[in-house]
Write a structure and sequence with these properties.
Oligomer: homodimer
CATH topology of the domain at 52-175 in chain A: Tetracycline Repressor, domain 2
Domain HTH tetR-type (chains A, B): 1-50
Keywords (chains A, B): DNA-binding, Transcription, Transcription regulation
Structural class of chain A: mainly alpha
GO molecular function, one term (chains A, B): DNA-binding transcription factor activity
Pfam families (chains A, B): TetR_C_11, TetR_N
Mean pLDDT of chain A: 90
DNA-binding region (chains A, B): 13-32
Chain lengths: 178, 178
Amino acid sequence: MAELARVGYSALRVEDVAVLAKVNKTTVYRRWPTKSELIADAIRSVAGFDEPLPDTGTIRGDLIELVRRSLAFARKPEGRAVSRLIVVEGGTPEVDALARLLRDQKRAKNAEVITRAIARGELPHDTPADLVVDAITSPLFARAMRFNEKIDQATIIALVDLVVTGAENVGKRGSRGR
Amino acid sequence: MAELARVGYSALRVEDVAVLAKVNKTTVYRRWPTKSELIADAIRSVAGFDEPLPDTGTIRGDLIELVRRSLAFARKPEGRAVSRLIVVEGGTPEVDALARLLRDQKRAKNAEVITRAIARGELPHDTPADLVVDAITSPLFARAMRFNEKIDQATIIALVDLVVTGAENVGKRGSRGR
């Protein structure tokens, strides 16, 4: 991640990572046959892919905590390196494939908080988990990572409340209007 | 836009645009003192900034039509040029400032469909217009422009319905749960 932050994806050489890690480059290649696999694993390890999901007992609490963690990551040097990778080096097939893979894995993991809310009876069975997660994370990520904007807690809560209230009530025609 | 599509923002020279337009470069500089202003106006003219907003009579209809137009634009050569600008050339201060300016103007314009829905009594007075617009456009734009994915009509309708239902019901504590 230090090397990725320093030189970016295109210029990163696995040999240099091996030198920094004080191992032989064959040791690196044995575990990560390609640069793309090495970087993907590095990002997974710093971006909380293996961290347990928040479990606050409510879908609003879980989603607010998920967003808080993501934004905290975006502010760290590792997060800046990832955002630089996506913003500055997007457009090359290798980087785009990597970005899509990580997005899909992160989204599938985050969707579990929706699955658990459905199991608790908090959300309808047919809640579109990917859409709910995307409607919350995508605008905040664009603001924070693409446009370098500070996101306040009130905005996070308002967006989570907007989308979760939608998920709770969509399909219930009787509750429309005020 | 043809020149932007051909060479990108950084390599674009106002002189070459003048040659293509068969005018003297001073003629271009008189109206657009900087490259950034020239490109901003070019994007505004092809990206529907001056087009009247949809007025279907319902907030769902208006938002679905707004998204349909944006996605149709993203598929055209001019839209690809804009997406290339944002994806490939992001990270330079000049491009980022331009992207932020255009996003702010587009978002303020789109927010008018929310203002009109509030005036019609379709949405509560305190509806957060920017959040509602962002929660719908941001995920679809990321999918279409960043990840080159095809968005089907069912996905557009589901996302608009999710977020608008949220806007209709948020704050009405009595309507929570099912």
